[in-house]
Write a structure and sequence with these properties.
7-stranded antiparallel sheet, alpha+beta, about 230 residues, 11 strands
């Protein structure tokens, strides 16, 4: 009886830690987006395609129940094709694998958690109207932003793996890779005009440090798909 009680306590503590990490990641994403008010649309698909995907999902569920080890091993090692396109805040497009569902929508953005067994694996994308007209004026240079972001990572202070100023679709952007003992993540942030406004945009991919190499190829494709939408007069 004493062993059963102790085991139950350990399970509860582990569950609480997982929930804490997930909540911290979501809060960090929302904080980074500075309470982004965003809208997004999904590129249209055919009814047949939707039915096919749902059928595949049902089948996959059955296979997972029958042989979870084999399915998870295959999923962990293959590089998924991010072919599902999303339009975010009417100012940029980004692709994610169609196998990854949106798990949470908020006033500030949307989140994906492809592998629910990995609490750190949370993706996010969002955009917010801001008053500044350049990234440097609003968030500092890429070195400043990456250092501040690493200091405030979920799970504790982290370090900057890389921080680069890049140009995407003719727009300035920052690309940052950060890591600590709990999370390994990579960001792309940019400032994109929409009418008379400027929209601060970001896309973040995250997973546990020991899963990074397995996801890296897919993550790189996701961030490479970030495309500002050219505004017409």
């Amino acid at each position: 009886m004493e062993f059963s009680s102790s085991a139950s306590f350990v399970v509860r503590r582990r569950g609480n830690r997982c929930r804490t990490v997930v909540n911290a990641l979501i809060i960090a994403a929302l904080f980074a987006g500075q309470h982004m008010a965003m809208t997004f649309t999904v590129a249209p698909t055919t009814v047949a395609g939707e039915i096919s995907r749902r059928s595949a999902a049902v089948l996959a569920t059955g296979l997972l129940a029958a042989a979870p080890g084999a399915v998870l091993a295959e999923e962990a090692t293959k590089a998924l094709d991010p072919s599902q396109q999303y339009t975010v805040a009417s100012v940029f497009k980004v692709n994610f694998p169609p196998e990854w569902p949106i798990t949470q929508k908020t006033r500030d953005g949307f989140f994906m958690q492809p592998d629910k067994t990995v609490s750190a694996e949370i993706m996010s994308a969002a955009g917010k109207v801001v008053r500044y007209t350049s990234l440097k004026d609003g968030v500092g240079d890429v070195k400043d932003l990456s250092t501040r972001s690493a200091d405030k990572m979920a799970g504790g202070e982290g370090k900057v793996v890389s921080a680069n100023f890049v140009t995407v679709g003719g727009r300035e952007a920052y690309e940052m890779e950060l890591v600590n003992n709990v999370v390994h993540e990579k960001w792309i942030v940019s400032l994109v005009p929409r009418g008379n406004d400027f929209i601060y945009c970001n896309v973040v991919v995250r997973t546990a440090p020991d899963k990074w190499d397995q996801r890296k190829a897919t993550f790189d494709k996701i961030l490479a798909s970030f495309t500002p939408i050219e505004q017409t007069a």
